[in-house]
Amino acid sequence: MSRGLKTTIAILALLVVFGLITLPSLRQAVQRMSATQRTEEQARRDVMQVPVSTPTDVKVKAQMYWLSTASPASLEATAIELPLSADPVERSKQLLLALITNAPSTSQRTLPPDALLLAFYLQPDGTGVADFSDALSAETPSGIQSEQLAVDSIVRTLGANVNVIRQLKILIHGQETDTLAGHLDLSGLFSVSPPSAAAAPASPVPDAPVTTGAVKTTTTTPARAPLSPTKQVPQ
Questions:
Q1: CA atoms of 140 and 129, how far apart (whole Å)
Q2: What is the pTM assigned to this prediction?
Q3: What is the structure's pLDDT at 148?
Q4: How many structural domains are present in the chain?
Q5: Which residues of the chain are modeled with pLDDT < 50?
Q6: N or C: which end of the chain has fewer CB within 10 A?
Q7: End-to-end CA distance of the chain, in Å?
Q8: Domain span at residue 179?
């Protein structure tokens, strides 16, 4: 065996030994980094999901739409007591936050628990714009039914409790997106039906001047019929 080959074998052996020695510490370092990242993400979620509180909050029975226990493929109205603002923008934020965090059970969730409401705007014509984090798209189960139920729960909850919203635009991280999770069309607007007498909350928002915000993006797509997407993207 030549001297060069012996030297190469010796170097490789040393590298193997070094790797075996350092592997546990490297594994621990990766685990610490992952734990730190999870902690930071949780901290961001906690900050973003702090309950919205305003001076005009009044506790009312809000009509929330989660999955039905009897028929998981449909939604059912659940009345829960929530402090809701008289301002329609703040009221909408409170409702959507509750829709994410206050589901009666895990099986009744319509929106992912990691989803964040980043912003909510209301235009003078009654168009609401709900801007959600990427988790809404990434963690909603892919499929036309699950995606439709997620959007329906948002639209029906807002419609039952905020009577100045006429249509809704859903953004993902400030951007328009073609679909929610591969199927349900999000390129247009969803019609929001005003609350009926039976479903209206105890203290509805009066038809007062609407608080507005600068919408990050606009669309000229005409409003669709309530809760019926105009396009499905094939799997």
A1: 19
A2: 0.67
A3: 97
A4: 2
A5: 41, 44, 47, 197-235
A6: N
A7: 61
A8: 58-230
